[in-house]
TrEMBL record:
Pfam families: RecR_C, RecR_HhH, RecR_ZnF, Toprim_4. May play a role in DNA repair. It seems to be involved in an RecBC-independent recombinational process of DNA repair. It may act with RecF and RecO. This is Recombination protein RecR. Keywords: DNA damage, DNA recombination, DNA repair, Metal-binding, Zinc, Zinc-finger. Residues 80-175 form the Toprim domain. InterPro entries: DNA_Rcmb_RecR (IPR000093), Rcmb_RecR (IPR023627), Rcmb_RecR_Znf (IPR015967), TOPRIM_dom (IPR006171), TOPRIM_RecR (IPR034137). NCBIfam families: recR (TIGR00615).
Amino acid sequence: MQYPEPIARLIASYMNLPGIGQKTATRLAFYTIEMKDEVVTEFAKSLLSAKRDLSFCHICGNLTEEDPCSICRDKTRDQGTILVVEEAKDVMALEKVREYHGLYHVLHGVLSPMEGTGPEDINLASLISRLHNETVKEVIIATNATTEGEATAMYLSRLIKPAGIKVTRLAHGLSVGSDIEYADEVTLLKAVEGRREL
Ligand SMILES: [Zn+2]
């Protein structure tokens, strides 16, 4: 039996989400139909608002309601340090620690020859242009401790060091393969404090 068109569309929409297969999507779709009207309306509004009202900061690539983002606008932050992360959610994880007061740069990915992701496919050109600003003294690379994350760190280091800028890598209390977004605050704090020069 074919599902009616509206539910088939809803199932297809859920299947666009990562880790959601046909079975889960079907369960979620039928669950959604059972939900109260106002709950569904709120859900739909929050989806649209998250997409419409947020954009990426043109300076650092962080997710923001206002461009430039509040971190880039904050002149009390240490303008001499840029911490490089893979995803915007890593910025939020590190900001929770409250011990880092410099700036950020979000790559929106990592280099991955296996998946055909090269330097031009990530938010790298804008990082290099930020480094031409003389105030930057240190770049802290906080890509995840995966093969791609390490390779990206090495690539960045080779690219940036010749400009006379100190390049450091987060210390790994973070275990291999672990993601910054899942690390607890104490681990992250130690990782920032114990960063080593590349
Ligand atoms: Zn920004």
